[in-house]
Here is the input.
Amino acid sequence: MKKRCVLLALLMALAFAAAPGDAAVLAWGSRGEQVALAQQRLRQFGYLSSEADGVFGQATYDAVVAFQRKNGLTADGRLGRATAEALGISLEGGVLSAELWQETELALLARLVSGEARGEPYVGQVAVAAVVLNRVRHDAFPDTISGVIFQAGAFDAVWDGQFDQTPTDSARRAARDAMTGWDPTGGCVYYYNPVTATNPWIWTRQVQLTIGEHAFAI
Here is the structure.
């Protein structure tokens, strides 16, 4: 009976994958370069431990479902437009543009650094970028830079208009330095200005160091 249910689920997934007019959806049974590149992204985020073999089977299905649940998406195990965008990839034109995703995430990070840390010493700007990246790796936060940045209430600059301004050159350099591995905070996932902070909860965080006007905490 159990095998019959599994077979039925597989047949349904294959039907979805082959559905006309929905070619930009990867599902159980899909094969090829697109699947392999999607698997590479899932491996990068820690959802898939098996090799990126280009075959959409049980392990890939489970990884997609886990990613969807973590990021507030419909957990149907299918890799369509919304899930692809959350992974930072594109299914258009038959190629997943991972390099374009990286450049887009870098630009978003630079905007955040510029809005949150304009006027701070350079190392402090890198530290703000590093906090975002540390959150990406932390289980309590979204798995992408864009997800962390746009998480409701996470960063004042996103909501007060500063994020929409053209980032400074130093903010761009700081974002790139953080993305290549420089973390002046040593793994902090919070920062705040002790002079202007009004949320009592942030004062419960353990401060590790202060750079410029920001206290960095875990």
DSSP finds nine helices and three strands in the chain. The radius of gyration is 20 Å. The first strand starts at residue 190 and ends at 192. The chain has two domains: 2-96, 99-217.
